[in-house]
Amino acid sequence: MTTTGEEHVTARGGPWWWARRRSAVLDVGLGALSALECGVEGIPFARDAGVPAVAGVVFGLLAGSVLVVRRKWPIAVVLVTIAVTPAQMGFLMGIVGLYTLAASELPRRIIASLAGMSLVGTLIVTFVRVRQDMVRGDLDLGDWFVPFASITTSLGLTAPPVLLGLYIGARRRLMESLRERADSLERELQLLAERAEERAEWARNEERTRIAREMHDVVAHRVSLMVVHAAALQAVARKDPEKAVKNAALVGDMGRQALTELREMLGVLRSGGDGAGRREPAVPLVAVGVAAAAAASRAVEDAGAAEGPCLSELEELVGQSAAAGMVVDLSVEGEARSYAPEVEQTAYRVVQEALTNVHKHAAGAKTYVRLAHRVSEIAMQVENEPPPEESASSAGLPSGGNGLVGMKERVAALGGVFVSGPTEAGGFRVSAVIPAS
Question: Is the pTM of this model over 0.85?
Answer without folding.
Answer: no
